[in-house]
């Protein structure tokens, strides 16, 4: 098992397990796991007796550590215990003993996360999946933070009953996982997960380890195909494509048999046209017997989504990379009167245009355009966010209620 000596979370049962990492190959940082009943706190192993009174004379100029980065890497490969590594770093530090007791504990906690010998086995939850995906690459989930995700669930009033529509064009399945988690298990709720591509993104959805029963209540369909199924009753191009594939497959089999029996590879144009016409007639006659194709899964998903859309939805959530105005105008007609909607975008300008358009129409109520970075609750006045090291890209939310 390769590891970067940080805390790693794995999928497991509800019980919390601790494993100690035993070095197998120090150069490649490969470890074996050994079940441990308890973990050893780094603070208890390293006895710090001297501490300073304040930190006013300590400057972080990068020269307080005597060891070079190469020497620290050699130390990590030679030592098997985290306490030995941290104790050596403390010994070669010029400012550690001048820090206050609180600063020393903070330093030890930071080094403990970096050189920890244990991993903790936890069952993944929505907060964990969101934090991992956001730390890896925020752009792949459209910059949706955990606080933004919680606001989307709250404003859309997701519950365990009714139907809910989600249009998602690039959050790696994070919004689908959040809404399906809010609907819960063994409920009657349905989630219509619409996406613009051929296949939906399900990274976060699969990472949540939902049961099969819960996953079946998430109907993932292409938005264009589902709307065509709803308005026209069938996929107009599906029969032509399937018949074309069956005819081409029959022609390929015929040519392969001719080559195998030693017949001529080249035939005249008249003979070829005659064979094609006869093959087409044979295919049309025996279509129900030999060449009846099996319908793909998306065909049945479109039918299911069409039935759910005809029953109207209880909420609408949109998180897109394109202009949300046309998407909202199309999907809002499938929402029951008096039901909420939420539109997420990582910049404010498209939502401002949608806000002015909806204000002029008058078919929505309680319109509100908010930014999680500057919100009027949970935060003191004239403040931004309780986390000090948080970035300022949390996106914008346009919420309201639809009235016909």
> Order of strands across the biggest sheet?
6-5-4-7-8-10-9
Could you give the distance between the termini? Answer: 58 Å
Put simply, the count of helices is 15
The H/E string reads EEHHHHEHHEHEHHEHHHHEHEHEE
Largest sheet: 7 strands, mixed
> Unreliable stretches, pLDDT < 50, 5 or more residues?
1-15, 236-257, 262-272
Helix content: 40-55%
Structural class designation = alpha/beta
> Whole-number radius of gyration?
30 Å
Number of strands: 10
Taken from the alpha-carbon principal axes, the silhouette is elongated
Mean pLDDT: 78
Protein name: tRNA (adenine(58)-N(1))-methyltransferase non-catalytic subunit TRM6
Region (Disordered): 263-291
Biased composition (Basic and acidic residues): 268-278
Main location: nucleus
Structural write-up:
The structure is a single chain. 40% of the residues lie in helices and 16% in strands. It is an alpha/beta fold and 404 residues long. The longest helix has 23 residues, at 238-260. Helix 7 links the parallel strand 4 and strand 5. One of its GO terms (cellular component) is nucleus. Residues 268-278 have a biased composition (Basic and acidic residues).
Core attributes:
15 helices; three-stranded antiparallel β-sheet; alpha/beta
Outline:
The chain has helices spanning 42-45, 69-78, 82-91, 101-114, 126-136, 146-155, 174-183, 203-207, 212-215, 223-232, 238-260, 269-285, 297-310, 324-331, 349-361; strands spanning 17-25, 30-36, 118-121, 163-168, 190-195, 218-222, 315-319, 339-345, 364-371, 396-402. It is α/β, with parallel strands linked by helices.
